[in-house]
Amino acid sequence: MADTLDFGFHPNPDPMPADERAERLKDPGFGTLFTDHMAMVRYTEGKGWHDAEISARRALSLDPAAAVLHYAQEIFEGMKAYKQADGAIALFRPEENARRFQRSAERMAMPELPEQIFLDSITRLTEVERDWIPPQEGGALYLRPFMFASEAFLGVRPAKEYLYLVIACSVGSYFKADAPAVTIWASQNYSRAAPGGTGAAKCGGNYAASLPAQAEAIEAGCDQVVFLDAAEKRWVEELGGMNLFFVFDNGEVVTPPLTGTILPGITRASLIQLLRDEGLTVREEPYAFEDWRKDSESGRLLETMACGTAAVVTAVGTVKSADGDFTIGTGGPGQITRKMRDRLVNIQRGEAPDPHGWVKHIG
Ligand SMILES: *Cc1c(COP(=O)(O)O)cnc(C)c1O
Q1: Which of 59, 208, 212, 264 has its CA 20 to 30 A from that of 189?
Q2: Which atom in ligand 1 lies closest to the alpha carbon of residue 242?
Q3: What is the DSSP code string of 37-80?
Q4: 139: helix, coil or strand?
Q5: Where is the PTM N6-(pyridoxal phosphate)lysine found along the chain (predicted)?
Q6: Does residue 266's CB lie within 6 angstroms of at least one atom of ligand 1?
């Protein structure tokens, strides 16, 4: 079966006028300003991947028995296309997203999308939508590849038909640009992932299950929720959509290990490398919630960073829980957090050398 496909291009006959787009790009927000086109590829058991196209972004027509609506076979990715200092467009480690998409598919008993089809879908759509990248600082095209079971049937087995799509939206900064640090809520009532579960897969279901915990966080006046491990409620795992790093006063940095309950972030992997490039010692090992509190109070812990594609690197300033609150460092972004954020952003924007070959230029 095909490992590559030719994408047909059917231009949107009614795109947003350029002056209206320019106006909307001044304040794009996050996740609401969609571009004119989408990529779509079909999968049918026996036939494989077929009918690849870039065409007008439009509503889908789905049978009400489509398997995704009942048994939730759905996975996604999130990545950004950046405008470089010289005007070229670049993606950041897109082959890592392609591989993670394959691992997510495997976990949800879905067919693997060949890496080259994934990369071509992203590249083609970005080329078509290059004028949708906001010109201002922090602006990017956020790409959302996703796949779901479209076969119409009621019964518990892997579906035989799937749709893979990529949509795109223009985005500014995820958190308000002047937000100094986030406050997070440690959930005692909810778990995100259990051993043997789907915590390492980027599937919509993980997010659905995290929403009541996120609502609890908002209720407690926090921005985000931090999840502890399901078995002991003792070890810090990650936020709803971001991985964590703990920076100590002796030059050591700890991040929770990938034991199957944590999403293997590409920003996480990149930060581990960049921290080591700085001469810091990074250990992937469990960190207890009680130590987080103790080490913050004693001053041994200097900083906590949260990271992911959407918000890049953000400081965690305060942690709240049913047992009381604690503040990390000064409560604002520390030195390493700021340095790492700048490091990563500068590589992504082509403003600093890219020693690890992470940036892929397109067009
Ligand atoms: C996507 C995601 C992350 C961050 O991954 P990146 O590849 O760095 O964007 C972290 N945690 C969860 C639960 C996620 O879904």
Answers
A1: 264
A2: 10
A3: EEEEEEEETTTEEEEEEEEE-------TTBTHHHH--EEE--EE
A4: coil
A5: 202
A6: yes
Of 263, 274, 348, 358, the residue with max ligand 1 atoms within 8 A of its CB, to mutate for a pocket test, comes to 263
Q: Do 188 and 158 reside in the same domain of the chain?
A: no
In a domain, residue 167? The reply is yes
If phi over 0 gives left and psi between -120 and 50 gives alpha, with beta otherwise, what is residue 319?
beta
Same domain, 89 and 200: no
Judgement on whether residues 242 and 311 belong to the same structural domain of the protein: yes
Spacing, Cα 310 to ligand 1 middle (Å): 9
Residue 362 within any structural domain of the chain: no
Q: Which domain holds residue 103?
A: 8-171
- Crossing angle of helices 115-128 and 94-107, in 10° steps, is 130
**In total, how many domains does the chain have?**
2
Per-residue pLDDT tens digits of the chain, which is 363 residues long: 679 999 999 999 999 999 999 999 999 988 999 999 999 999 999 999 999 999 999 999 999 999 999 999 999 999 999 988 788 999 999 999 999 999 999 999 999 999 999 999 999 999 999 999 998 877 899 999 999 999 999 999 999 999 999 999 999 876 555 568 999 999 999 999 999 999 999 999 999 999 999 999 999 999 999 999 999 999 999 999 999 999 999 999 999 999 999 999 999 999 999 999 999 999 999 999 999 999 999 999 999 999 999 889 999 999 999 999 999 999 999 999 999 999 999 999 999 999 999 999 997
User: What separation in Å is there between the alpha carbon of 50 and the centre of ligand 1?
Assistant: 29
Q: For 214, list phi and psi in degrees, rounded to 5.
A: -65, -40
Identify whether 60 is part of a domain: yes
